[in-house]
Amino acid sequence: MITALLAGVVLWSLFAETLPPVPLAAISAATVFVSFLLGRHHSHGPTAMDSLARSSRLCGENASFKAAASGLLLILSTASPTPLPPLFLFFFLSGITVVMGNIPVRKYFALFWLPAAFLLLSALTLLWDFYRVLPENEVLSLPFFGGWLAVTPASQSLGGLVLSRALGAVSCLYFLSLSTPLPELFAVLRRIHTPEVVLDLCMLIYRYLFILLATAHDMRDSAASRLGYASLLKSLRTTGLVYGRLLANSFRRAGQCFDAMESRCYTGKIAFLTQRKPLTGKVICLLSIPLVGMTFGMFLT
Amino acid sequence: MTSSEKKILSLSVMVSLAICVPQTAHGMHIMEGYLPPAFCVFWGALCLPFLVAGVIALRKLTQNQRRSLLLLAMTGAFVFVISSLKIPSVTGSCSHMTGTGLGALLFGVPVTSVLGIIVLVFQALLLAHGGLTTLGANTFSMAVAGPLVTVGLYQIGKKLRFPKLLNVFLAAALGDLFTYCVTSLQLAIAYPSAEGGIGASFLEFLTVFAPTQLPLAIIEGILTMLVMMGLQSYAKPELALLQNRKRGLFL
Q1: B37 to A126: CB separation less than 8 angstroms, yes or no
Q2: CA-CA distance, A161 to B36, in Å (whole number)?
Q3: Structural domain of residue B91, as residue ranges?
Q4: Chain B closest CA to A24's CA: distance in Å?
C-alpha cells in the first residue's frame, strides 16, 4: 500500500506543471490503484523466476546469443541520453518476454514490485532537493527546517531519465533471466574463460540452493508449529537457531557429498553437460529490432 | 517559524519517515540500470583487485584441500538462502539478511568477495534483486567494503579482549551499517544534489534509507551472533577444519 502511494507521489512530482492538474491527478490515482492491485500478489518464492525461465517458450533458443544481445541492450539502455528509447525498449522487451515466452502478465509485473521500493525512494530524493532560498523556477515546494524542499524542471528531467533508464535495463535483465536457466548462462561464462574454480562454485551453489531452501522451509514450519515465532524476541531466537543449525547441517552435507564424489573418482574437476541449442532466425529477428532501434536512438539524440 | 512549530514539523517528518517505510527491506542493492555507465565501470574496476586476490586464494584453498570447495559452495548457497528468506523485524515489514558479514568472519575478505559476487549474480537473476550493470557497485559495497569493516572491527575487538559474541555482533552490525553508508555514497556521487553537491545528496540518501537499514543492521548483528553460537555447538569439526587451514577468523 505504501509503495503504491509512493508511486503516485513520484508520478505527481515528475509531471507537475508539464501535464494539467486534472489528468495528472487521474493518472497518479490510477497508478496508486494499479500498483496496489499488483502489490497484493507480489510474494514470489526464491525459485519462482527459475521455474518461469524453464517453462518459457524462449528457453529453447541459443543462450549465448540471448546473453550477448541482452548485455548490449543493457549498455545501450543505461547509456541513453534521453528517456524515450529506454521506455520503448521496456515495452518491446516486456512484450517479447510475456507474449513470445508465454509468461503470465500478472507474474511478470509482480516481479517489478521488488525493485519498485528502491526505485521510488531514490527517485524521490532525485526529484526533491533541499534549497536555502526557494529557486525561481520551482514546480512544487514545501517549507522544511528554515529552507525549502522543491522540485525544479531540471530535477524532473533527471528523475524521468533515471527512471526510464532503470525500467529499460530491468526489462533487459528480466528478458534474460526469464528465458534462460542459470546453468546455461554458466556455460556461456565458461566459453568466455571465466576461472574454472568460480564456475564450479556457481554450479555447486545452484545445485545446493534448492536443497537448502527446502530444508530451511521444513525447519521453519516445524519451529512455527511449536510457536517459535510467537513474539519478536522468540522469533529472533528461533531464526538464529534455525540458521545456525542450517549452516551446520549444510557443512555436514558438504562433507558427505565430498565423500561421495571421492568414491566416484573426483580429481578436482567437475564436468557438466549442456544441451546444444542452435541459433534460430526467430530470435535473431526479435532481438535485432531493439538493437537497431536503440543504436539509432542513440545517434539521433 | 517559532521553536514549537519547528519541533512539530520535525516530529511530523520523523513520523512520516517511520510510516513510509516500504514493505520489503533487503540489504541495500542498487537496482539494474540506475547508475550511469561510467560509474558502473569505475566501481567494477575498484572491486577487481579483491576479486583477483579472491580467485587466487580460492584456487590455493581448493588445491590444498579439495573438501573446502564443497564447504564454500554450501556457505554460498546458505548466504543466498538466508538473503531470500524473511527475518523478523521491528516495523512489521519483511526484511532480509545480507549474510556477507558471516562469510567474512568465516573465510576472510578475499574469498568472501568472490562468494559475494556469485551470490549477487544469483540474486539479480533469480530474485530480480540488484542487477548486472550495477554488479560492480553492489559488489564493492556488500562484498568488499562491508566485510573489510567487519573483519577489521573483529580483529580490533579481539585485541581489546571483547567477549567473543559481543564482538561478532558489533562487527556484523557495523559492517552492515557501513555497507549502507557506502551505497548511499555511491548513489550520491552518481547523482549529486543541485545546490549542496555530493554532501547534501549523500545526506538525503542516508535519511531516506535509514528507516529500513538501521533496524536491519541491528537484526543482522543479532542473527550473525546466534548463527555463530549455533555453529559452535553443532559444527565443531568443520570449524576446526577452518582453524587448521588458518582461513577463518572466528576461532
Answers
A1: no
A2: 11
A3: 30-245
A4: 22
B15 belongs to a structural domain? no
Most confident of A3-7, A42-46, A85-89, B24-28: A85-89
Nearest-CB residue to B33 (from A77, A117, A131):
A77
Asked if the structure places residue B46 within a domain, the reply is yes
In this structure, how many other beta carbons lie within 10 angstroms of the beta carbon of residue A209? 25
How many CA atoms within 13 Å lie on the side-chain side of A89? 40
How far apart (Å, rounded) are the C-alpha atoms in residues A50 and A29?
34
CA distance B104 to A294: 42
Tell me, yes or no, if B32 comes closer than 8 A to chain A by beta carbon.
yes
Distance CA A182, CA A177 (A): 8
Cell of B141: 559495497
CA distance A140 to A152: 7
Q: CA dist B1 to A187, B4, B5, B7, B9, Å?
A: 64, 8, 6, 10, 10
Q: What is the pLDDT of residues B166-222, one digit of tens each?
A: 999 999 999 988 988 998 899 888 888 777 778 888 888 888 777 777 888 888 888
pTM of the model: 0.84
CATH number of the domain enclosing B236: 1.10.1760.20
- A37's CB contacts (< 8 A; 6+ apart) are none
Q: Which cell goes with A167?
A: 525500467
Residue of chain A minimizing CA distance to B113: A198
Domain count, chain B: 1
Domain-located, residue B9 = no
pLDDT tens track for B64-89: 777 778 888 888 888 888 887 776 65
Residues 6+ apart with CB under 8 A from B52: none
What is the Cα Rg of chain A in Å? Answer: 24
- Is B40 within 8 Å of A78 when comparing Cβ atoms? yes
Helix axis angle for B197-234 and B100-107, nearest 10°, is: 60
| CA B229 to the chain's CA centroid | 20
How far apart are the C-alpha atoms of B185 and B141, rounded to whole Å?
Answer: 10
Residue B163 lies in a domain: yes
Coil, strand, or helix at residue B232?
helix
Task: Please report which confidence band the pLDDT of residue B5 belongs to, taking 50, 70 and 90 as the band edges.
Answer: low
In terms of residues, how long is chain B? Answer: 251
On whether ipTM exceeds 0.85, the answer is no
**What does the radius of gyration of chain B's CA atoms come to, in whole angstroms?**
19
B250 phi, psi to nearest 5 deg = -80, 75
Which uninterrupted H or E stretch holds A129? Answer: strand A129-131
pLDDT of residue B204: 81
Between B67, B70, B131, which is nearest A204 by CB?
Answer: B70
